[in-house]
Amino acid sequence: MKTLQIGMEWFPDRPGGLDRYYYDCCQYLPQADIEVTGLLAGSDQVFQESNGQVKAFASSKDSLPKRWLKMRTAFGQNMTDNQYDLVVSHFALYTFPILDQLRHLPLVTHFHGPWALESEVEKPKPMAIWLKKQIEKAVYRRSSQFIVLSQTFRDILHREYQVPLNKIHIIPGGVDIDRFNINLSSIEARTQLNWHPDKPIIFCIRRLAKRMGLENLITAMAQVRDRYPDILLYIAGKGALADTLQTQINELELTDHVKLLGYVPDEQLPLCYRAANFSVVPTVALEGFGLIVVESLAAGTPVLGTPIGGIPEILKPFSQDLVFEGYQPNQIAEGIIEALGGDRVLPSSEECLAYIRANYNWNAIAQKIKLVYQKASIVKKT
């Protein structure tokens, strides 16, 4: 099966859940006999880095009208030069301008989240939010099948965009287990990172944005610090809230306990997970899957998460103790204190890894995606 996959940006250039998923699709779908050609926004290096598999149709810094025009040109050229069985959308914004060029080809959408609703949480601009939702609806009306990462996103896609349930398929994200299951002890990982060898360490990686719940986590750490004076929390990521979070850390007198690491290179993430006693995902809204949850477990590190979106769908079948009672600061603090004190039983590294191997192996997930692609192709032909 030959597919043309429309992405947002190239993962090594722009870290993020959608881009990571798209990148992994390019790696693993060919192993399921799905040929992948990709188009996304980025630099000329994308073509070389992907061994000719993916092209950047425009720079992500171009104006939106220019990106749309260049997308139409690149898509039209690909349609002239190739015969595809399927077009696959990972980002509605770049699929929208080529809807009239699809002709007879079926379109499958990987729904990575409600773009308009996420914008409403972060930057409430009513007109922009309305326009984003119209773009999404136009793409979803043309799509014949949908893949979502969780039941939570299935429900949102059905409720907010009126997509029939029989067109929506829940297939969780996967993780490159070999990349995260590094052959290092926690102490060895800490040594390489220059982290403290003895103190309890919590790791959190998030975009520094409102819906990620980092303000609540930092507030919770004031309570945790009172019980465990040597506790350390390392927060990796960049975003608009960096200065606000640092001010909060200073005001709560947590500078010796909470550190903003900024951007952490992708190759260092397995070390960060392995070095921590456990990781935390404090999301307060619209968490469709939580790739960092399975990454942490693949590194053999337990993860505590809020009961939001797809997080409990991953964690509860494994261990109820890994899910906080809620996302408020006192609930997060209570859960962390219980974990540090042994009142919450954290699974072993071996148990974490076994759970991921059984449920989030990319090779098995690629086969499930293939079945949806085949269904879309068959339905369109009939």
Automatic annotation (TrEMBL):
Top-level taxon: Bacteria
InterPro entries: Glyco_trans_1, Glyco_trans_4-like_N
Record bears the keyword Transferase: yes
Gene Ontology molecular function terms on file: glycosyltransferase activity
Signal peptide: none
GO BP term, pick one: lipopolysaccharide biosynthetic process
Coiled coil: none
Keywords in alphabetical order: Transferase
Domain Glycosyltransferase subfamily 4-like N-terminal: 15-179
Domain Glycosyl transferase family: 188-343
SUPFAM superfamilies: UDP-Glycosyltransferase/glycogen phosphorylase (SSF53756)
Pfam families documented for this protein: Glyco_transf_4, Glycos_transf_1
PANTHER family in UniProt: GLYCOSYLTRANSFERASE WBBK-RELATED
Protein name (database record): Glycosyl transferase group 1
